Amino acid sequence: MRILFSLFIILFLLSATPAVAQFNSNQFTTPESGIDLQPKFPHPGEIVTATINDYRSSSFGSDLIWVLDGKIVPGTKNKRTITFTAGELGASQAIEVVLTKGEGQNEKLKAVIKPIYLDIIVEPQTRTPDFYIGRALPSMGSVVNATALISGDNTPVSDLVYTWRIGQNVIEGAAIRGQNQVSYTTPMSNKEILSVEIAKIDGTIIAKRFVLIPSVEPVIQFYELSPLFGISNKVISDSIPLIGNSTIIKAEPYYLDSRVYNNPAIIEWKLGGIVTSNQSKNPYEITLERTWAGGSTGLEFHVRDTKQVLQGAKGSTRINF
Description:
Blueprint: H1 2-15, E1 34-38, E2 47-53, E3 63-68, E4 71-72, E5 81-85, E6 93-100, E7 106-113, E8 117-124, E9 143-151, E10 160-166, E11 169-170, E12 176-177, E13 181-185, E14 191-200, E15 205-214, E16 219-226, E17 230-231, E18 239-241, E19 246-254, H2 258-262, E20 266-271, E21 274-276, E22 285-289, E23 296-304, E24 312-320
Parallel strand pairs: 18-24
Antiparallel strand pairs: 1-2, 2-5, 3-4, 3-6, 6-7, 8-9, 9-13, 10-11, 10-12, 10-14, 14-15, 16-17, 16-19, 19-22, 20-21, 20-23, 23-24
């Protein structure tokens, strides 16, 4: 019986098929050697750093000679990193490194650059008064328009593919052909990176740029408004004296989204802590009249959107009678 049981075990082991781990050797390929450029998409006249990116270590023990547009770059022999100046707008440049091994075999690594100007025009759709000499800034929840202007490449805009990103998020979810203009809503952050990558329809990337865009909170500033001379560009700070029998005060909500400015859900004035009925045709202006001999009282203004609650601001000052 023991002999029969032993024979059964031996036959079972002989008939068992071993499990073998399988993998596709094509999944483990060695990266190609090449030249890394920084920046990858230089402007004309910009300093470019070129570095050998030799994953295969084929440069080990080799003589290195750098060649720019067919001419040897002086003082760069056997250097793995060199610098050179990007050429004229739209003019292609070829940077090569020749690796000569001990056996006399040569290998060339090559990269081509084409200096192009790429500018991003950023236009926050927020409120600033006409006399303000600064620029409008985005605020959380406000709309921003951006336009990419490229110079140095003759490809029509309609034949270029644009990938816009705000932070890590692709605007509109994908790259879009011919879309050199986008609009996006400012995210909840005090600053964000807006970037655009431009490629030809065959996938060749020709330019890329990013800009750091700050985000601020809307703020109320008060100004005195004269029926004869218009608005004063001097901000009312802590208080304003009422010299005559009346004065007009205007509230300017800097960096408030234009949509909220034009159609606010909440807009109110308070005088002495009490909501005041404003008879002015412009809800951002209020006429104050002298009603007693002296003293002072607080003046408050509040504007806000009820859907985008961060789109709003409060401000206050004092009126001295």
